[in-house]
Amino acid sequence: MAEIRREKCLLITGATGSLGSELVRHYYPEYQILAQGRNAEKLLRLKLAYPRTEMVLGDLRAPGLREAVRRADVVIHTAAQKYVNLAERHCYYTVDTNVNCTYELADLAARHGVERFIFISTDKSSFPTNVYGITKYLAERLILELAEVYPQTTYVICRFGNIFGSSGSVVQLWLEAQRRREPIQVTDPNMTRFMFSLPDAVAAVDFALHQGRSGDIIIPKMKSVCLRDLMQLFSDAPIEIIGRRPGEKVHETLYVQGEISTGYETDQYYVLNTRDTTRLALRDINSSECERVPLTTLRQWLQQLIRSAA
Ligand SMILES: NC(=O)c1ccc[n+]([C@@H]2O[C@H](COP(=O)([O-])OP(=O)(O)OC[C@H]3O[C@@H](n4cnc5c(N)ncnc54)[C@H](OP(=O)(O)O)[C@@H]3O)[C@@H](O)[C@H]2O)c1
User: Fold this and answer.
1) Which residue in 18, 90, 168, 219 has the most C-beta neighbors within 10 A?
2) CA of 200 to the centre of ligand 1 (A)
3) pLDDT, tens digit, for every residue of 263-306?
4) CA of 20 to the centre of ligand 1 (A)
5) Confidence class of residue 76 from pLDDT cuts 50, 70 and 90?
6) Phi/psi zone of residue 58: left (φ > 0), alpha (ψ -120 to 50 degrees), beta?
7) Measured from the CA of 163, which atom of ligand 1 is nearest?
8) Which CATH superfamily does the domain covering 80-309 fall into?
9) Which residues are 253's β-sheet partners?
10) DSSP type of residue 233
11) For range 172-180, the mean pLDDT
């Protein structure tokens, strides 16, 4: 059997996370993967599943990561402190991780000749109201600045809504509450969130990898979910309404007027870029106003999640 040539080296930060580990699985056949993670046990499990993967153990400040950047052709930067409530209470750590470390990594990437740097951002960066969102907004801005400074590296940003069932997500918390026979905690049943599946998130990263141009912000055209609909998936569970947490919005925005207004769109994505000349007729994209994910799709996603965890 002819051996597959894996000349290219792909560094995935946060490779032990929900998105990162799925990206390892997706790109494993094609690339030499360098997987960065802080948790040794999770990294070792990844290595068992994907034996050619090289582990880069440590946080974003560890020297091993610099060596990995030196070897990488492509970097996909997913590692972040993504918990909104923790960010409110650990502001310095969140700024340092999400802003400073992202900037240093992205800058180092260009200095070491990395061809492409993909940064995973969030809709919470759009008109941010919490520390987490502000850090991602700043990181987006810094990446765009680096795209101007280093033309030899292609910097692409993916701005995502919620990935259904990702670690620490409301669905994971509710499943855990169910297992413990405790009430599911609902902040506000009227809240809406942009939501899509993990395979859709991987597809968007793949679009960034193959079609993204430097300075692009790629925004998937996502549907939204109202917490009230999500609660229907847990209709047997007792409910405890706990109210909105500091910094949380009732509805999210994927894009607000006043941001970059030039670019192009496909059936699946808005692609913003200041270098484009075509104006996108975009108004605010608010999760309360867009199409909802059908309940049947939510049920399918939940079944898949439960099956994959079994
Ligand atoms: N999940 C979503 O719904 C969603 C939506 C929009 C955007 N995003 C963005 O997508 C990315 C991935 O999200 P995810 O859900 O996959 O997150 P996740 O499951 O929490 O994974 C985050 C990863 O980052 C690592 N990490 C955290 N802090 C670190 C640090 N200081 N140094 C090194 N590594 C660190 C974690 O390592 P450990 O395993 O050691 O903790 C983990 O591997 C994040 O940038 C997030 O902001 C996620």
Assistant:
1) 219
2) 17
3) 999 999 999 999 999 999 899 999 999 999 999 999 999 999 99
4) 8
5) very high
6) left
7) 3
8) NAD(P)-binding Rossmann-like Domain (3.40.50.720)
9) 286
10) G
11) 95
